[in-house]
Write a structure and sequence with these properties.
Elements (H helix, E strand, L loop, with lengths): L3 E5 L7 H12 L5 E3 L16 E2 L20 H6 L8 E6 L13 E6 L10 H6 L11 H4 L1 H14 L5 E4 L2 H11 L4 E2 L22 E4 L8 H11 L3 E4 L5 H7 L4 E5 L3 H10 L2 E4 L7 H8 L4 E4 L4 H4 L6 E4 L4 H11 L6 H9 L3 H11 L3
Parallel strand pairs: 1-2, 1-4, 2-3, 4-5, 5-6, 6-7, 8-9, 8-11, 9-10, 11-12, 12-13
Length: about 375
């Protein structure tokens, strides 16, 4: 029987990438999970893996929640793993996990969420407008130059190590080619098609629009708040993050922050929403398909993964520019349109676990 291992950058939160890991666990239930750091409290989902192996970074007290400060140690951390006993290793990564070293008898598939964002596609955003936890560092952009130079060189070298690349969207396929000069196949991440509890069926639509996002800068929740402040339409925001206090200060009374919610609460919110709003550029954007699986259309920025997941005019609206006016026009246009629940749910089913599993299996050498 083939021995398989799964590798991920860090196990300390819950999100779209973590859903991919659980899907891979369903395909390879005996595969252990290798990662730089593991926060069991904030990542209880990982308990299903037979074993979670960590690096020396696990012993650093603040590493579980402040991995941003440890970027230059990530290469050494992932290169320290020994995969000589495995036939297949699948790295799921948006950073350093692709840099593991494997021998000639081990086949390494990299399921690439994106080429390291802060080094490539998002470099300007991260280092000219750094996340707030870095904001106190004077001249952050200039102090980071030697570290970024080293990490870029290592990242390109690390990109040569996988035997095969899989991209999560057309956008990521193009980035892999641009930054790593590697070809890749596309296997879309899986989306759970919910089975609604009986008490939620036939629930009437509310009058609100919904955002389900981490509240961090590149998610551009600020853009949505500015638009809905002007529109005065109800906007419910699910999620938390470093920008939460700032966003709450700028929001008018029609904008409600709901924090973290459980699965049932999120189901209720999806079923009652007029539309999901995605003002950010996503690498893929699983929430867009989650919404559609509930029969909820999506208003999304026309870039990145939204072009794969939202059919403009049929399962939502794609707005052209990441500006308040462009988003407002899209919302006003949306309010005059009708969307078929059947078409929305049908589109979501194109991204089912069954399709994902077959896509992964097809990439494994016979």
């Amino acid at each position: 029987m083939m021995k398989v291992a799964i590798v991920y950058d860090r196990v300390n939160k819950w999100g779209g990438a973590e859903r991919v890991l659980l899907a891979l666990h369903d395909i390879f239930p005996k595969a252990p999970l290798y990662t730089s750091v593991y926060d069991a409290k904030n990542a209880s989902w990982a308990e299903v893996f037979p074993k979670v192996e960590t690096t020396f970074l696990q012993k650093i007290p603040f590493a579980k929640s402040n991995h941003e400060f440890l970027g230059t140690l990530m290469p050494l951390a992932f290169e320290s793993f020994d995969f000589s006993g495995f036939d297949l290793v699948i790295s799921v990564t948006s950073e350093a996990a692709k840099g593991i070293k494997t021998g000639p008898k081990t086949f390494h598939i990299c399921y690439c969420l994106t080429p390291t964002r802060y080094l490539w596609s998002g470099h300007k955003f991260y280092f000219e407008s750094p996340p707030s936890k870095f904001g106190f560092i004077p001249f952050f952009k200039y102090l980071s130059i030697p570290f970024i130079k080293y990490l870029k060189k290592w990242d390109v070298e690390a990109s040569r190590r996988p035997d095969k690349f899989i991209a999560i969207s057309q956008e990521i396929k193009e980035r892999i080619k641009k930054y790593y000069k590697r070809d890749s196949e596309i296997v879309f991440p899986p989306v759970d098609i919910p089975s609604h509890p009986k008490e939620l069926k036939n629930r009437k639509k509310g009058n609100y629009y919904l955002i389900v996002n981490r509240l961090i800068p590149y998610k551009r929740v600020d853009l949505a708040i500015k638009a809905f402040n002007k529109l005065k339409y109800p906007l419910y925001i699910v999620g938390s993050g470093s920008e939460e206090a700032k966003l709450k200060k700028m929001a008018f009374d029609n904008v409600k922050f709901l924090g973290q919610v459980n699965e049932i609460e999120l189901s209720v919110l999806y079923l009652g929403a007029l539309a999901l709003v995605m003002p950010q550029e996503e690498d893929f954007g699983i929430v867009a398909l989650e919404a559609q699986s509930y029969g909820v259309p999506v208003i999304a920025f026309k870039k990145g993964g939204a072009k794969d997941t939202v059919i403009n005019g049929k399962t939502g609206i794609l707005f052209e520019r990441q500006t308040t006016d462009s988003l407002m026009r899209a919302v006003k246009k949306f309010a005059k349109m009708h969307f078929s629940e059947r078409i929305l749910k049908s589109n979501a089913r194109r991204f089912s676990f069954k399709v994902f599993k077959q896509g992964i299996v097809n990439q494994i050498p016979k």
